[in-house]
Write a structure and sequence with these properties.
The chain is mostly helical and about 70 residues long. Helices cover about 45% and strands about 0% of the residues.
């Protein structure tokens, strides 16, 4: 859906995948069109903010870079 949304907004997209099934899904966006209501609804999903951290705040970047993960 997001690929179709981008194409309808005249945004050039270059999807990437190694999976044959996913490649087929990515190219199958030209047999339908999103309605104006769909386009508006998808547009409202972006908040312009990261839900993980604020990349404009240097301390949050430093904290992530210095974090030690027990993986």
């Amino acid at each position: 859906m997001i690929l179709r949304w981008l194409v309808q907004r005249d945004v050039v997209v270059i999807p990437k995948s190694k999976s044959k099934e996913r490649i087929i899904e990515n190219i199958s966006i030209f047999d339908f069109e999103l309605t104006a209501e769909d386009m508006a609804a998808i547009t409202t999903l972006g908040t312009g903010k990261s839900s993980i951290f604020d990349h404009h705040y240097p301390a949050s970047i430093k904290g992530i870079c210095e974090a030690k993960f027990n993986i």
